[in-house]
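Progress note, project year one: complex with fe (ii) ion.
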Amino acid sequence: MKTPLTAFFIIELLEKGNSVLNENEKLKTLSNLGIELNQVHDLDILMERILSKAREFVSADAGSIYIREGGSLKFSYTQNETLQKRILPGEKLIYSVFSIPIDCTSLAGYVALTGVHLNIPDVYDLNPDLPYHFNNKFDTASDYRTVSTLTFPLTTLRSGVVGIIQIINGHDDNGQVVPFVDIDEEMMFHFASIAAVALERARMTRATLLRMIKMAEMRDPKETGAHVNRVAGYSVEIYERWARRKGLTEEVIEDDRDRLRMAAMLHDVGKVAISDQILKKPGRFNDEEFEIMKKHTLYGASLFGINRSDYDDAAYEVALCHHERWDGLGYPGYVDLETGEPLKEHEYAEGGATGKSKEEIPIFGRIVALADVFDALSSARVYKEPWEEGEVLDLIRKESGAQFDPELVEIFFSILDVIRSIKKRYSSDISH
Ligand SMILES: [Fe+2]
Ligand SMILES: [Fe+2]
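Model obtained:
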């Protein structure tokens, strides 16, 4: 195991390091790096930044971070200066959608398998007797020539290898491809450890949210696992069509789907703070009880209000806004999260807060509002039989532009077959 970054090493680095970044710039980058990266909560942005800093430091043309998913590695973040110049701005690099197995058929696979890093001067000049091999599939697909590579495992004490960072084609001052040197390896240990910690943090956030979903399910007999799964399922399908219409990239859509799925499952998690007497009442609420119930939006939001990750942001929006209405007549509206009191200039003369309306309601909130009502009406509850599908659809059509975002209603009807299949897939709570 190499030693971590030390003062001595930094001096050594400044003496020996290649000169594409000058010494001052390197020292400055190093000292700012820890501070800067700690401030980034969004995993995607953090990974992109780690990758570009690592490439900048070792003067490399390209780099990728793969994330381990079960038995394979998924290309998750990719930068390639040469290829980026060949495509239109905003277009995706061709190999950013591939997965590769964790085995000896690729350098990244081998590093993930063994946890040992590799510094290869020329990947096309490897002794075939070596236990690892270069996979030229990506070079062929993208018409790129990989020469030198540095491949490091992203390892955490808790989970072992959680991913890989690979830096490709080091270059000298004249832009000629050169092998990576020892100092570059030292630097990569540093970047790999920051990336591994960030990944671990994201994984733990996800695990915590999964526990909260389970907890909400145990607490509220009406909010069954099947209901939250259906609401999440409908929501991501609606979102995907909406996001495509808006021209969002596949990468953004995929990440948002994951965040929205979690957030939608947690839409009513704030109900854990409502008393049993009200929560478990086997019938409709009176006005007073309903006022208390409404607060589940604020309680839910307050669970995600501090130290927010990208998952928390989505969960916050959904918990807070899933009962807002497109026409502004929903709740909780513009209130102080702590007190529930209306914010200044958002108060009706007769009291109460004005609701958020139209695009003031975040898109995730607008989507879950529709998905939740559709599912609540379509399912049996203690106090009611499920509505016939035709009745539910009539109501949704009628409420387009009133309770619901009309564009989302239009999308909803365009994917009715998908919605029906999700409903069928999670139909186990029919007795509730
Ligand atoms: Fe709710
Ligand atoms: Fe619900």
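Residues 223, 227, 231, 267-268, 372, 376 surround fe (ii) ion (ligand 2) (CB under 6 Å).
Confidence is low (pLDDT under 50) at residues 1-19.
No further modelling is planned for this target in the current period.
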